[in-house]
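Following up on my earlier thread - several people asked me to post the actual chain instead of describing it. Fair enough. Here it is, all 198 residues.
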Amino acid sequence: MSALARLCDDIRACQECELARHRNRVVPGAGAEDADLLFIGEAPGWHEDQQGRPFVGPAGQFLEQLLSSIGLRRDDVYIANVVKCRPPENREPLPAEIEACRMWLDRQVALIRPRMIVTLGRHSLSRYFPTETIGKVHGRPRQLDGVLYYPMYHPAAALHQGSLRQTIEADMLKIPEILAQGREEPPGPIEDRQLSLF
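Reply from S.P.:
Thanks for posting it. Predicted structure:
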């Protein structure tokens, strides 16, 4: 069993916050253990809570379409969430719940070692860039501690606000070129810097 698989087992046993009392299934994450791309959403929804897998509802179907647009399948990437259990009634996760799950996400990132972390939505963005807003920084890559970060709207946003669909699709199409540029960037100091591509 791999270190990431053992970590997922540990996550499934977690009782660190109140969400553990309401869940059906924990949703640790899924995908390629050596993925270049790590997508981080907000929290599991109803479908995810039933199946124990991330992004399997309508937002997940849209994410699969987005991945297909750049020649990828969900098995080529790793998909996780800021919190691993569904908040009751699909409410937003509370700060204490996000903090309780912080160690799990940190360990996932350390084991996967992705070339790029794609933050999906504002909770995922604020996990790494707490002063930024998704409306201002979506589609603009950043580098921090040697990792590329790429903020995008959450796929569910397109389901609730159809006008965002084209924006999300366009942001996804930039990913291959950003990854290619990231490979060419020399290692620099630990800083938050805007890449020159956009």
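Residues 3-185 form a domain with the Uracil-DNA Glycosylase, subunit E fold (CATH 3.40.470.10). That should answer part of your original question.
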